[in-house]
Specification:
single chain, 350 residues, alpha/beta, D-Maltodextrin-Binding Protein, domain 2, 2 domains, six-stranded mixed β-sheet, five-stranded mixed β-sheet, 11 strands
């Protein structure tokens, strides 16, 4: 029960500041590397550090690796798993890896702290963060949770908890420490808990709570880009062709994973992280497809990975009441649309 899907995998990377920007590769420990053997003479080596241990939410990357899509684009890709206290954006800032995962919060934080990292694509069109409540407790909407106890991790309290306070009037007094165990929630019907729609509901139902109330933030106007791809601005300038190939291959991996047979990715995921069971992977895949996490909204016309200036501005504007970012933040330094919105891979849906 210690598997925190909100963990804040992405929020943890948001803790990078100008001071930690100078951290070297030795300050970070990778918890795993998975690579399909390839010819070093013909393929360009690329490393991505993921937000957490291998799981269904990383399916597109593992699918592109397992099915040879990355190799087709001339890339020999290493997938380094994340985990507790692993912050790959430090390696990214030190130019020790090419890509990491983040979210809108982290990208805006980079600009605020003058760190030259940016978002280059958003495979997730919907953030999968949720708050989960017991049924029959009058907690049927996010607004109804105002003033009621919610298990929230410390990392979450510096990101989307601020959004919830601004929009719904939540207060610090109702936040309860979350140690990434569902046991307190299962024992107390008055509690709600953070999670990911792709995992915690599955765990909670399996533990005996029928029909938990799942509040998906993205379905209530929360416009955060989640599980984004991040790169160093220097790499954007120096190797745009390599980045485009990586983004295109990753997009194809996601189309294959969501609309075709996900088993090649799932096999690699289980090899890298034996904690992932077949039923959990199946649940995550079905949920991502049913909830249109990967392909919805802008991506239906622009392709998986889509981002827009309008959505970035809307999210930034929504956060202004929180005081998290200055009013004059230069959003153009947080992301680039150079590698997305080209409709790449849309034909692969059929």
């Amino acid at each position: 029960m210690k598997r925190d899907m909100t963990r804040n995998r992405n929020a943890s990377s948001g803790l990078l500041t100008r001071r930690t920007f100078v951290a070297t590769a030795g300050a970070v420990t990778a918890t795993g590397i998975l690579r399909v053997p390839a010819s070093a003479q013909t393929l360009e080596k690329v490393t991505i550090g993921t937000s957490w241990k291998a799981q269904g939410e990383h399916g597109g990357y593992y699918q592109a690796l397992a099915t040879g899509i990355y190799k087709k684009y001339g890339l020999d890709v290493n997938i380094r798993m994340g985990g507790p206290q692993v912050r790959y954006n430090q390696l990214l800032a030190a130019k020790q890896i090419e890509f990491s995962q983040g979210e809108s919060f982290t990208a805006l934080g980079y600009v605020k702290d003058n760190i030259p990292l940016c978002c280059i694509a958003s495979p997730f069109q919907k953030d999968v963060r949720v708050l989960i409540s017991h049924p029959g407790q009058g907690n049927d909407t996010l607004a109804a949770l105002k003033g009621k106890p919610i298990l929230i991790a410390g990392s979450s309290r510096v990101t989307y908890w601020n959004y919830l306070k601004a929009k719904y009037g939540y207060a610090e007094e109702q936040a309860r420490p979350y140690s990434f165990s569902l046991a307190p929630f299962l024992a107390d019907k008055s509690l709600s808990v953070q999670g990911y729609v792709t995992s915690e509901p599955f765990q909670i139902i399996k533990a005996g709570v029928a029909n938990p109330v799942v509040h998906m933030l993205a379905n209530d106007g929360y416009a955060n880009y989640a599980n984004t791809l991040e790169a160093h601005w220097d790499l954007v300038k120096q190797k745009p062709d390599m980045i485009q190939r990586f983004v295109n291959a990753t997009i194809e991996g996601w189309y294959s994973f969501i609309y075709k047979d996900p088993s090649p990715a799932n096999e690699l995921i289980k090899q890298a992280n034996p904690e992932q069971s077949d039923d959990l992977l199946a649940y995550a895949h079905k949920t991502m497809k049913d909830q249109q996490i990967i392909d919805s909204g802008d991506s239906l016309k622009l392709g998986i990975g889509a981002m827009t200036d309008a959505r970035w501005k809307a999210f930034y504007d929504a956060l202004q009441p929180t005081g998290m970012y200055p009013a004059n933040l230069d959003l153009s330094k947080a992301y680039t649309l150079q590698f997305v919105n080209k409709g790449h891979g849309i034909n692969l849906k059929s």
